[in-house]
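Quick one:
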Amino acid sequence: MLKLKPNKPDKTLSLPQKKAHVVTKDSANAIVPTDSAAWTQKPFGEAMVAQEEIITLENDILKIDLTSKGAKVKNVLLKGEKNFDGSPLNIIEGDNNKFGFIFKANGENVHTNDLVFTVVNKSPNTATLRLSYKQDQYLEYVYTLSEGHNLAVNVNAVGIQNLMDVQQKSIILDWETTLLQKEQNIKSEREKSTIFFKDADGDIDHLSEASDDEEKIDDNKLEWIAFKQHFFSSIFSSKQPFENTNLITKVATQDGVVKTYKATAELASTVKPTTTTNSTTSSALTNTKH
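Output:
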């Protein structure tokens, strides 16, 4: 299960005058295929050339834009809150959030973050996006925005195991975020932002808040990983424990950017080539300010 929970910050939040816009490496260096027919012959090839679609979920507190590219959160607007200059307060903005899974199918590396899902169902509070190989083989994200600050997503893998290489025992979680400045004092904000995690023994630890840091955790399994930015936190957990986890934080040097976070981890996958199986991972997202 994936959960993202709010912190308990100070009562006053002051925001910078200069706004920053950061584009992740993947989006900036996106490959535009010159031969679409050739690309469609690859696993999930049609998803490499499909057009991106934006889906909006909304309640009394949050307005969330999902993108069909990667089936991930693109923008989160916190209603009723403004920047010091009167502009809207966006917790997640644009292409600064990367989230997906990596696995090998039919000999090809598949990065779900870069593929365009099909929107198969949507309403003001729910959306279902699907990455299909065949009618009975697909990866599906079902988003549900409940009351308050909670966005849940169930990730359903249907028949995908049949595509994976027999020797592949896991799929890779790939999560990366660039934190944009939310406080006037960016130095203080950087010193209060880092990655936290909880291991299978119940111990909670974190990377350095003061400097760049990296931690490889191959001797224990993790229950959840949290990207904390002083006033806001995003926590990812799974019913299956994370294994061989690698966590990286880097302090930004450019104006308006706090830090960059990256987490990769293995999730066990049982491959059964002759049968169609289902596996479900659930997740939830909360961002809020007190």
